[in-house]
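Quick question, first post here. What does this chain look like in 3D?
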Amino acid sequence: MSKVRELFTFSVEHNDIKWSEVISSQLCRYSQKKCFKVRKSQPDISIGTCTVRYGKSNNRDVIICPYRLLERRQIFTDCLHLLTSHTPGNELHIIPEVTIPGGSVDYFLVSTDSNRKVKDFVGIEIQALDTTGSVWFEREQALKELGVANNDTTVNKTYGINWKMTAKTTLIQLHHKIATFENINKHLVLVVQDCLLDYIKKEFSFGHVSNQPLLGDAMHFHSYNLRNENGTYKLSLGERYSTGSGGITRMLGLNADANLKFEEIALTLEAKISDSTMFSIF
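> Answer (accepted):
Ran it through. C-alpha cells below.
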C-alpha cells in the first residue's frame, strides 16, 4: 500500500472522489493554485503529496506541504485573539509573503479601519516537515491503487523526514524575525503539526516556554493535530505556547538585533490590501 495519505488535498481513503479529474487539474484547494511541488525532471507535473505515512510502524501521518495547514483557514481564526487593537467594524485581511528585517513572513492577519489603514496585525509562519529522498514513487503507487494510471512501481526508492534540519532552520528563522515584532509590541505565531513541535520540545531547550500563552509574549506556538475522521483528514488546534525573543535565543544560543517601527510595516501592508485579501470568519 502506498504511504501517500493525501493527494491534491484529498484523502486516498475517500471513495467519492473523481480522481482522474483531480490528477488532471493538479489544483491545491488550499492555495487555489496549481500545486507548487513539481518533479524536477518533469516541471509540468505536480506531485501533489500533502500528507504521508511515516515511522517504524507506519502509524504517523505527517504533513509535508505547508499549504495543507491552511485547511478551512482555521489557523487565522485561531490568531484573532492576538489582534489586541482590533475593534468591531474593522476589516480583516490576510496578506501573504511580507518582507521585514530578518526575512519574509508567510502571512499577516491584519485589522484595518474603514479606510483600510492598518490598526493591528499578527505575523503567521507556517511550517511543514521537509523530506529527504523522493516521494514520487509512493505517489505513483498511490495512482495505481486509485485506478488512475497503470504505473510501473517496481522501482523501490524511499523517502525520509528531515526532522533536525526542519526544526533548526525554523527556529533560526524565528530568531531573525521575532525581535522586530517584540520591539513594536506585536505577535508572531508559528503554526506546525503536533509531531514537529514535539520534536522541537525534545531536541531543544523548551522548559522555559510557557504552556499558558501570555498576550505579553511576542512569540506564540500553535500546534495542530491531524485526525482521520471516516476517511477524511481534519486539522484541529492542540497545544499553544508562548515566549519572547529571549526564549528563542535560549533555544539556539544565538543573538540578533532588529528594529522596525509599526508605521513602516503598516505602510508595506496597506500597499498590498485589496478586496481579494479580505478575511471572513463566516
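Residues 163-183 form the longest helix (21 residues).
The longest strand covers residues 232-243.
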